[in-house]
Amino acid sequence: MLRYLTAGESHGKAIVAILEGMPAGLHLELDRINKELKRRQQGFGRGKRMQIERDRGQIISGLKNNITLGSPIALLIQNKDYSIEKLKKVISPRPGHADLAGFLKYGFSDIRDVLERASARSTVATVGIGAICKIFLGEFGIKIFSKVLSIGGRHSKQGMREKITEAVKTKDTVGGIFEVVVKRVPVGLGTYAQPDRRLDSRLAGGIMSIPGIKGVEIGLGFDYAEKFGSEVHDAIYYTRGKGYFRKTNNAGGIEGGISNGEDIILHACMKPISTLLNPLDSVNIITRRPAKATVERSDICVVDAAGVVAESACAFVLADAFLEKFAGDSLKDIKQAYRNYLRRII
Ligand code: EPS
After folding, report:
1. Does ligand 1 have an atom closer than 6 angstroms to the CB of 96?
2. What's this model's pTM, rounded to 2 decimal places?
3. Which residue among 30, 147, 160, 180 is least enclosed by CB atoms within 10 Å?
4. What is the pLDDT of residue 315?
């Protein structure tokens, strides 16, 4: 239904994304996209690059007078730090990064050719696309939020800040866990009918595609493994007018690969950034002798930003699943299909 492609190197001219399958008739304001891009740049522990960039999108196709045409939407975000040709060669791979595997896979002589595309800079495109999907979902009252739950094992706001400050002082990095919540999702997005169409596998895949993510949980997640069925499954109730509902939401809004009408709740774990100012042991790829890993400008902690990117990844998956269920070429047709469906199920 919906698909997108991104292009661009971290220090290339720009990051580009093309979104295809957005219906005609959706009102898109660039300001809304730029607000999301700005949210991605924030958070305690970001590096110097975020002081250089002022990420702003340009929509270069698919829109007329701020209304979508149903044709592909191309979004371009320029890099202020366009310097790819001038940057020094990288010869000691960073443990934890794509550096070594990418270098061996593609047969490069400079690890920079890996890291320029493997960089989390590409998440600008995910957020741009996600912002458009959020505007679409907003037409149906669906809203997506995220928050950081812990940093380096600390759960209080003060504790999280302390952990990041400690990482800055010790020239280290730190990861954490964030939560994504989606509200007012209708019953029936995704399906058990094929493994690749399950909503849970698609959401988990979307979040796992963000650099640095090492685990995703839905609802109770790994805690399910420690309980009896009678303790965890969400009992079903019905009231006239309100329809079916639950008093608990351990399933995180998804059962059998289908949204069940409750909030969708996801948790994800982000590893500490792999560029360390106090580098780990590595190997020089030219001499193959021991060397310290490359030190590049980077961030100390990006869990906050990862939450924003994950909101976007989820927005794309949900917009795709929504269009699958309520297919139509124009927003008007989709709204009609949605109304008919709600009338039937309540
Ligand atoms: C990022 C841009 C990058 C990094 C970071 C995220 O900019 P630069 O490499 O010029 O400092 O700050 O990327 C990574 C941490 C990574 O591992 O790739 C951004 O725009 O978010």
Report:
1. no
2. 0.97
3. 147
4. 99
